């Protein structure tokens, strides 16, 4: 079975695939055009996809009839039209759990960086603009006893809430598709409506899976309802927030600060005015960028394809119903 991997992944995953007897195809260049990428996909059996450069939509599936399975090197699968994959009985694998701690670490880091204006102050040091002591200049805020609001209290959201509870004794409120009884029991988390979430959060952290109906969910009308001292954190997907509305909310004092590991669009332009604000910290989508998390993702992605090659169910499959179609 031939596997196309569009970008290099940690050796642990490559070794697993080779030991399982799968033939790996890497592109000559990792900066592929859509047409070049499509050509590679048309000449393979299964794909291990890294990144979200291109969409797995109807056009793709129509153009690549030989594809039998796709393993994503990510938790998110918003760049895959799962309904189209289902029509063709193509299982889609992802990599949950292994990056939950690393991604929640970044959310926790962003929250503190924004609260203490770390990026702004670091830039002052780099520019030799330390300046004399000013008791009132660019003050931050403390996080002790504040209310953390989590939009999407799944694995990553739980880890973020747990850190905030233990480090700063924060109150935890959340909005989710379903109640999280574990969080309510262990973290004393309280389920609230979306409107209650945005009105009552001192820190609002986004951790939900992104779907098209979430596009620009956090926009002007939402930011205007938030606490003027609130910090907005997004480590999920840039599509959740309307970036121009966020900029205006920050400059007009509707909210206090923002920490982003994802942007809209992504990557963010270097001349984006949001980068000039002292109450903002932006990172280049590094949520899973640890040796431990990336190795874990490689193992899961490879494991999904190895299982498929043996006629077994992918251990981490986002559309497991396709297997009932295979067996019927």
TrEMBL record:
**What SUPFAM superfamilies does the record point to?**
Formate/glycerate dehydrogenase catalytic domain-like, NAD(P)-binding Rossmann-fold domains
Task: Provide the GO MF annotations for this entry.
Answer: glyoxylate reductase (NADPH) activity; hydroxypyruvate reductase [NAD(P)H] activity; NAD binding
Write down the Gene3D superfamilies for this protein, in alphabetical order.
NAD(P)-binding Rossmann-like Domain
Q: Which reaction does it catalyse?
A: (R)-glycerate + NADP(+) = 3-hydroxypyruvate + NADPH + H(+); (R)-glycerate + NAD(+) = 3-hydroxypyruvate + NADH + H(+); glycolate + NADP(+) = glyoxylate + NADPH + H(+)
Check the record and name the InterPro entries matching this protein.
D-isomer_2-hydroxyacid_DH, D-isomer_2_OHA_DH_cat_dom, D-isomer_DH_NAD-bd, NAD(P)-bd_dom_sf
The UniProt keywords, alphabetically, are: Oxidoreductase
Cite the D-isomer specific 2-hydroxyacid dehydrogenase catalytic domain residue spans from the record.
4-319
> Which top class of enzyme applies to this chain?
oxidoreductase
The GO cellular component terms are: cytosol
Q: Where is the D-isomer specific 2-hydroxyacid dehydrogenase NAD-binding domain?
A: 110-287
Q: What is its EC number?
A: 1.1.1.79, 1.1.1.81
**Family per record:** Belongs to the D-isomer specific 2-hydroxyacid dehydrogenase family. GhrB subfamily.
Instruction: State the protein's name.
Output: Glyoxylate/hydroxypyruvate reductase B
- Native organism is Chryseobacterium nakagawai
